[in-house]
Amino acid sequence: xxxxxxxxxxxxxxxxxxxxxxxxxxxxxxxxxxxxxxxxxxxxxxxxxxxxxxxxxxxxxxxxxxxxxxxxxxxxxxxxxxxxxxxxxxxxxxxxxxxxxxxxxxxxxxxxxxxxxxxxxxxxxxxxxxxxxxxxxxxxxxxxxxxxxxxxxxxxxxxxxxxxxxxxxxxxxxxxxxxxxxxxxxxxxxxxxxxxxxxxxxx
Length: 203
Fold this sequence. Notes:
- The chain is mainly β.
- The chain contains two helices and 15 strands.
- It has a five-stranded mixed β-sheet, covered by helices on one side. It has a five-stranded antiparallel β-sheet with strand order 7-6-10-8-9, with no helix packed on it. Strands 12-11-15-13-14 form a five-stranded mixed β-sheet, covered by helices on one side.
- GO terms for molecular function: mRNA binding.
- This is Polyubiquitin-like.
């Protein structure tokens, strides 16, 4: 079958209905050079998970899948020695909230670089780490969002509007009893993976 993958243009990919979303990302990477870990695929407002198959989402011949690609340029890291603690970022950015990749392979935090056979002059890629937060309405309804820790609150409200249809200017977000300011980011409030934000709908 053929499905159409829309990035900034429409790309046709030859796939099987039994192919996983991860396989689709690999095909897009091979065809357009978009790294798999920077791709977020959607169909009818559903985010497509790597381990699921196209058929699981009802994707058929000539379906259109939407691809969101991280718009920030990944930080490129130059390895001076073979231990993670001496990695130097060329832009001086903290590595605490980033994932490291060697090609397509994600590096685990608790391993040292030599365990991946990384040598001097190796080039790694740093990508902002994605966390999941819970948004809870006053009626108990909950949704989850995949975000970066440095996502601005106003951008989180935009995601909520896309999912729940509540205009941004009618949303109030609270965490740990504090009202969240639009111009601040999640990290400023120590919001981490699995944190719950409370949503006041001012309708």
